[in-house]
Amino acid sequence: MKKQITIYASILFLLFTAAIIILQFMRLDLFHQWFPAESAQGTPVETMSTEENPTEGEELQVYVHKNDTPLSKDAVENLEYAMDYAKVSYQEITKKEMEELTPSPYNVLVLGGEHSKEWPYEEIRSFVEKGGRLYIASRFINADWNELLGLEDVEDFLDDIYGLTFEKEVFPGYMDLGEDSQLFSHSIADVELAESAEVYISAEDHPILWANSYGEGKVMFWNTSSVTEKSSRGLMLQALSFLPPTFVSSQAGIKVMHIDDFPSPVPSGTTDVIQRDYDLTVEDFYSEVWWEDMKRIGEGEDVIYTGYLIGTYQDTMDMTAEDLIETRRFPMLYFGRKVLKEDGEIGLHGYNHQSLVTADEPIDPEYGYRPWQNQGEMEESLNRVNELFDYYFKEKGVHSYVPPSNVLNETGVRALHEVFPELEAVSGLYTGDKETGAFLQEYEPNSEFPSIYHFPRISSGYGETDEERFVQIDAIANFGVFAHFIHPDDVLDPYRSGDSGWPEMRQSYEDMLHYIHDHYTHLKGMRQTDATKKMKQYQASVIDVTYQDDQVVVQGENLLSPSTILVRVNSGSLETGSFDYGVVESLGESGTLYQVTLNQPYAEIKKKDEAL
Question: What is the pTM of this model?
């Protein structure tokens, strides 16, 4: 009996000792170092090319002419960006070359508003009458053009017109914006339309976009100054697509979701809204409620999260790398590993939440941020947070960066490149106010450091406003990218949450993502580094389109595999279903728009024989 007791005591002692060793093992973070968090490997970008010879038929020719006036120049350049992103080729022409255009339903002349008296009107009128297409990219007044443009009468300009009402479906998903919306402020011509004009969009009962048939040709007219806004690019491209008999544009098919300030220091205690709905501390709410909901929604709606860690919210550099490592154990080990486990990745938001700008670089003073003394001080802070990153996510590396408050300037970019030579993407904003220091971007390499790619975010928040939804749809209508970001602590902030609790915010967030997932099935959820690679390859690809009476022939080099194109058919319709080259599906309710998934780099997309 005594021998048995001795054995049991020895076993208990060994178990107790083992427990202590395991606790010390985990306390010293050896566990996560020996068993690092695993995440999915980067997805390779697959491509396809054709060896087919060019096919006979017509090619779409878009001829662009810009005036020097700001409205004309900015509106036409906005359309040029839209065409570049959608891989629709165009060429700029002079006034003299306008006089020599060949009338064809696949020849489109694009003009900006204003200075219409300088254009060769009679030649343009004849071009349209004999079958050419005319696209007016912004409003102007010239009574001599009334018949061509589909006007009975025109008065003076009207300013401060707001909102948008869709009289026809321009692209599925656009919603009407009320007169109280500030997203678009229109300066328009006060016009009376002729019976031949067909209104697509209006605002406050005034026509904003209309088409007019003239002779054998067609005119599309933008009666607004708001076409200089980036958030109108998708609209401008889709308006262009209604002019020729058939129109093909390309889609990148990308969906990314950023979580800024995640992982980050977690506030202690609780807040009124968390206490009201859950009776939990902030830390427990994040871990037991918020993250579990985010994970469930992400899995259900094909969203992969890229989190952007931050070391401290202090505006000083008091915390050493060792301090950060010691005090950020919970968010790094718990939330960081959770993101990686869901096939996500961790990028960098900063050592602290101070934007990387010096005193002589612009930033909105309302942020109350402390400017950095110089590039060297920035680099020191980045090195400290890099040690934190490397300690908990060893061998992952920093490949993407989001600037705090989306503010960044040249000095900060140089500091980032110096400390993180492997950095692939910097994500600021697609739209915003540059005067406040916002880092506004196009999808393109950095001019000074081409290894860094600019991948701007298009929208933000938990899906509460029509304006945010609108800019999402516009980017999808243009080039097929959904790039969104949120903050975990939005629910803690009465201003950012609109006094809503997490149940309401969660529902609107899920509704937003469900709509995107359900209506734009070609957008694939991916991590930021994979999205960067895919977007770069999409832009590098070459696509050729030939239009024939009974089919559209598409062929290309280094196309994404699979690729997605949109086909607008204004004369006839497409055969839908599965084919050797891929799948053709009707998109939206207009009956003219199709989504085509190409699994081969050469496709003969047949039109229906309407006589059958």
Answer: 0.93
